[in-house]
Amino acid sequence: MAEPNQRPQRKMSTAGDGLYKVLGLEKGASQEEIKKAYRKLALRHHPDKNPDNPEAAEKFKEINNANSILNDETKRKVYDEYGSMGLYVAEQFGEESVKYYFLMHKCWFKTLMVVCGIFTCCCCCCFCCFCCGKCKPPGDEEHVYVDPEDLEAQIRAEQDRGEHQPVVVQPHTAAVEKAESDHDQSASNHSDPIFTTTDQ
Questions:
Q1: Does 48 map to a domain?
Q2: What's the pLDDT score for residue 31?
Q3: Per-residue confidence at 159, pLDDT binned at 50, 70, 90?
Q4: Mean pLDDT over all residues of the chain?
Q5: CA 63, CA 44: separation in Å to the nearest integer?
Q6: How many other C-beta atoms can be found within 10 angstroms of the C-beta atom of residue 68?
Q7: Which of 50, 60, 92, 145 has a CA that sits 20 to 30 A from residue 133's CA?
Q8: Using CA atoms, how far apart are residues 37 and 34, in angstroms rounded to an integer?
Q9: d(CA 25, CA 37)
Q10: How many CB atoms lie within 10 A of CB 45?
């Protein structure tokens, strides 16, 4: 629930006349009229002249805000054309982007984009993920069987071609060779029948 001291937040408009109304002017007033109205209202609602009135301080802030926007040529131009919503967009995206923002939010622009997307098949398949299988790029075979003997032959051929080729197979170490020979010995011992002689 809102506190009683807080004022409700104003909705943003595209009319562009609210700041002129704060200063008591019509839209399109000259710089001289804006300065005169600002001085007059600022003196009337200044917090030093109204120390017991918190509404006067809020009104003074509104007057200052209206004056600062209407005295800045670029902000005033944006405000006159697009209203407070235009000022918000200019603050977020930059003053150059305001007209493009409002252009992209017009109904005819959205319709044009949908029609172009339909006629060009999603912009000439730029966003196609090839899920239909019709436009699948060539050579993308997912499961290709390669014989291990062919791979070994290819590795040996690459090794035989030159000494400057990168090493692709690690050399056997003494520990690995010893483990292999121990394994071979134990396998041969288990295959031969064991004869033991006992003393009688």
A1: yes
A2: 87
A3: confident
A4: 76
A5: 11
A6: 12
A7: 145
A8: 5
A9: 8
A10: 20
Cα 94 to Cα 16, 40, 101, 103, 121: the distances in Å are: 18, 33, 10, 15, 33
pLDDT of residue 128: 62
Asked, for residue 153, whether it belongs to a domain, the answer is no
Q: What share of the chain is helix, strand, coil (3-state, %, to 5)?
A: 60, 0, 40
Whether 108 is in a domain gets the answer no
CA–CA separation, 141 and 143 (whole Å): 6
- What's the pTM? 0.49
Is the CB of residue 158 less than 8 Å from the CB of residue 168? Answer: yes
Residue 89 lies in a domain: yes
Q: Report how many domains make up the chain.
A: 1
Long-range contacts of 51-54 (CB under 8 A, 24+ apart): 54/5
DSSP 137: P
**pLDDT tens, 161-199?**
765 556 667 766 766 667 677 766 665 555 555 555 555
Is the Cα torsion angle 139, 143, 147, 152 positive or negative in sign? Answer: positive
